[in-house]
Specification:
This protein is mainly alpha-helical. The protein has one domain. 70% of the residues lie in helices and 7% in strands. It contains seven helices and four strands; from the N terminus they run αββαβααβααα. A hairpin with a 2-residue loop joins β1 and β2. α2 (49-67) crosses α6 (179-205).
């Protein structure tokens, strides 16, 4: 019995330490206001609801585009679809401004802010960002790409936004979900998005665009991107501590 108690206490201590590290690293990219975070098992995730939706939306869109056969397309979606994508971006901006005004003046501009709306707005914005990054990654990293636009047809748009909607439903409905599970999922989403983006930027800065013929060739850049991510987040976290205390 005592051994089991000590094991549980040790597991909890490891989880608390990991959470503290993640909270510090993410403090430079999100305000982390407790009332604007999603809670599981009585504990707040290390990102606000809007940022949670944004990063999950980005990663979800990238994965969905790949598994639905978009391949290594290297062109942006057609203009008619890009115009449609301004709607979730505008919703994200409007919801953010509305929340900011409510926080600053005590009264919202248009409607009472709610974490569910923040999550939806963030998810829609994240999906659009993921769709935008998808061809950039391929054009920057791969030697052989398909010179076709991502989401060439209107019907192709359904999959990434449907996947985002599923994430929203699961996050909001599965209230009894283990906190550690969502901490891991959200943490992986943030680190993967930043690592791939930073790795791509490093390749471009070194004038290595279009260098990869296989995944092993990309791994060093992803690792460099991860190290850059940790350095950036640490610097931002320290800066926030110095400025805000």
């Amino acid at each position: 019995m005592l051994a089991n108690i000590k094991l549980c206490q040790g597991h909890q201590a490891v989880q608390d330490t990991f959470l503290s590290i993640v909270r510090f690293l993410f403090s430079g990219i999100c305000h982390q206001l407790p009332e604007r975070c999603l809670y599981y098992e009585g504990r707040a995730l290390p990102l606000c609801a809007r940022c949670t939706g944004t990063f999950l939306g980005i990663l979800s869109a990238l994965f969905t585009l790949w598994v639905t056969g978009q391949g290594r397309r290297s062109l942006f979606p057609p203009m008619r679809l890009r115009v449609l994508f301004t709607l979730p971006v505008a919703l994200w901006g409007l919801d953010g401004i509305n929340s900011l005004i409510q926080w600053a003046f005590g009264a919202p501009l248009l409607y009472e802010p709610h974490n569910s709306l923040r999550l939806v707005a963030g998810m829609g914005f994240g999906v659009v960002i993921g769709i935008t990054l998808y061809p950039i990654y391929h054009l920057a990293l791969w030697r052989k790409v398909t010179h076709k636009p991502v989401l060439e047809h209107e019907r192709d748009v359904i999959a990434p936004f449907l996947a985002g909607a599923v994430w929203v439903i699961v996050l909001l409905v599965w209230k009894s979900a283990p906190f550690a599970l969502w901490l891991l999922v959200v943490g992986l989403a943030v680190f993967i998005v930043f690592a791939v983006t930073n790795g791509t930027l490093i390749a471009l800065l070194w004038h290595k665009e279009g260098f990869a013929d296989n995944w092993p060739a990309i791994i060093p850049y992803l690792l460099a991107g991860l190290l850059a991510t940790l350095a950036e987040m640490s610097a931002l976290g320290i800066w926030r501590r110095l400025v805000m205390g």
